[in-house]
Structure formats: C-alpha cells, structure tokens
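Researcher: Next entry in the queue.
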Amino acid sequence: MSDTGHLNQLSGLQQKVDQFAKERDWEKFHTPKNLSMALAVEASELMEIFQWRDGQESVSSLPEKTREAINHEVADVFIYLLRLCSVTGIDLLAAAEEKLAQNAQKYPADLVRGKSNKYSEY
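Model: Structure for this entry, 122 residues:
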C-alpha cells in the first residue's frame, strides 16, 4: 500500500475513534491528562502480559488466548494515542517522522551499532 493509502487509513481510523467518543458523549472526559493516563494504563496492561516471562520466547509460541490479549492491548494503546493526538492537535505521523530524524542524529548508526547506551554516553 502507498504512503497515501496508509495516511488515509490512519486518518479514517482516527475519525472513527473520534466519532466513537462523540456518540457516547465521552469528549468531556477526554482531556490530555485523562487520555495520557489511560494510555499509560493500557501500556501497563500490555507489559503485564510479558511480566515474569523469560523474554526469549517468541510471541508466536504463546497460547492463542495470550496472543489475542496482546493484540487487544496493543489496539487499546493505539486507540488512546490516536484520541490524544486528536484532542491535542498533534499530527502523529509528522511527530513520529520528526522524532525519528532527531534520533538518527542522536544515535548515528556507525557509532551506536550493537550498543544500547543512552545518547549522552557517546
């Protein structure tokens, strides 16, 4: 799919998420504070699925029920992120592109390849 196609899909999904909130009169609850907290809660629920696992197993080796839970939590994180971007007026794709460019400067591939140090340590 082209970049334009993905952009249209993302925009369409964001509109669906916004409409979902509007139809339920939830807009009044969707403040940046509340949405950022909900986003953190959902990210924590995703982390909880992996808690106490050895970290070496692949997701495909997990039981179907666990993979489904991962799928749902990832979707929750994404939906709250889209909603937060709508409420704050952030262009998610532009913000991600900008951050990726900043990270490329902080972490030049030839300098950091195979290392996990923070940029201030290079």
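Model: The domain at 31-109 is CATH 1.10.287.1080 (Helix Hairpins).
Researcher: Noted, moving on.
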